[in-house]
Amino acid sequence: MRFLITAGPTREPIDPVRFLSNRSSGRMGYAIAQAALDAGHEVVLISGPVALNAPPRAQTIQVTTADEMYDAVHAHLAGIDIAVLCAAVADFKPAQFAAHKIKKHDGIPRIELVPTRDILASLGALSSRKFLLAGFSAETDDIVENSRKKLAKKHCDAVIANDVSAPGVGFESNENALTILYPDQSSRILPRSTKQSLAKELIKILCEMKQKR
Ligand code: C5P
Questions:
Q1: What is the pLDDT of residues 101-155, one digit of tens each?
Q2: pTM, entire model
Q3: Do residues 174 and 195 make contact, with C-beta atoms less than 8 angstroms apart?
Q4: Which atom of ligand 1 approaches the CA of 123 most closely?
Q5: Which residue among 1, 146, 154, 159 is buried most deeply as judged by most CB within 10 Å?
Q6: Phi and psi, residue 200, nearest 5°
Q7: Is the dihedral angle over the CA atoms 11, 118, 85, 91 positive or is it negative?
Q8: How many structural domains comprise the chain?
Q9: All residues at 6 or more sequence positions from 21 whose CB lies less than 8 Å from its CB, including other chains
Q10: Residue 182's domain spans which residues?
Q11: Which mutation among 113, 120, 146, 156 tests ligand 1's pocket best, with the greatest number of atoms within 8 A of CB?
Q12: CB 59 within 8 A of CB 132
């Protein structure tokens, strides 16, 4: 099978030296890419800025901003069987980019934010979509309820929820705990484990889902 995987954060520039971003390390997405490769699949990995080595056998496309990630994803959909959107895409970006560094002595700047385009929702909205679509959902509160809403709103085949407020799991961590939510209201818990072993399990589950369709 051919996988498209997004991973890592995006950076939304404010001026030439500053940006808005988040704490995503990219480890979960890279583990999923590696697990897919280990299982003999092809991988297109679209990655925001991370401090990780690209898996050698993946076709890796490095991007910085949410807009670049959106364009890269849409440019690489041909032949994809399974898309796993794991990236922590910034939800907002500065409305304007200051071409010169904003100076401290000019006072505290007011930075107006505008929403970024939602990549996962844009794939869910494709009427011609043949690939299986799974999104991640990082939440700190009401995880299952919020993730169920995303599943419905973004028209995915699965949403993989993780609690980013629990100590030792989620962002910047080697471990995670996942709940996979399906459109028929059922769910499956993958208990706390390394991101590598969760990724392996996830690849198996997604391949079985794709084969059943
Ligand atoms: O709504 P929320 O950002 O929590 O949804 C998370 C899911 O949506 C993740 O799969 C993430 O990769 C995806 N997403 C996206 N584009 C955005 C925001 C989120 O693809 N602009």
A1: 999 999 999 999 999 999 999 999 999 899 999 999 988 889 999 999 999 999 9
A2: 0.95
A3: yes
A4: 20
A5: 159
A6: -60, -45
A7: positive
A8: 1
A9: 9, 10, 11, 12, 49, 90
A10: 2-212
A11: 120
A12: no
What band does 76 get if pLDDT is binned at 50, 70 and 90? very high
pLDDT tens-digit readout, 23-70: 999 999 999 999 999 999 999 999 999 999 999 999 999 999 999 999
Q: Look-up: residue for tokens 């440019």?
A: 75
Residue 60, domain CATH: 3.40.50.10300
Long-range (24+ apart) CB contacts under 8 A made by 44-47 are 44/2, 44/3, 44/4, 44/5, 44/76, 44/80, 45/5, 45/6, 45/7, 46/4, 46/5, 46/6, 46/7, 46/72, 46/73, 46/76, 46/87, 47/6, 47/7, 47/8, 47/87
Task: Tell the residue number behind the tokens 């993989």, with chain if given.
Answer: 160
Nearest residue CA, atom 9 of ligand 1? 136
